[in-house]
Amino acid sequence: MAQQDDNRNSDVYGVEVDAQTRCVHYRSAVDIVAIKMRCCGVYWACKDCHEALAGHAIAVWGRGEWDARAILCGACGLEMTIREYMDCDSRCLGCGAGFNPGCRGHWRFYFEGA
Hints:
By secondary structure, the chain is an alpha+beta fold. Helix content is 11%, strand content 17%. It contains 2 helices and 6 strands, in the order ββββαββα. The chain has a 6-stranded mixed beta sheet. Strand 3 and strand 4 form a beta hairpin. The protein is globular, with a radius of gyration of 12 Å. The two termini are 21 Å apart.
């Protein structure tokens, strides 16, 4: 089940990250998902922010790791597993906020075999 992150979005890294995890690269109303990178264990607003600032390559989450809590809703701070996120129909399981369905096209950068 998804879990509330008490720190909300204060620990999301990126370029010009706002209170709902949007960054300079993705700023639409539905760009409110941050992903914990497997390589460094911290939340990033997007892969482009990680590439610009992290100083190392992204390591993808393996299929066997999809029960890891690695997705953060920028609207309510709910932390979801990768599997929950992939199955959520682009809506937060906690608050119902809409996520960008176009992000599905980027899953291959984060999740093995996605």
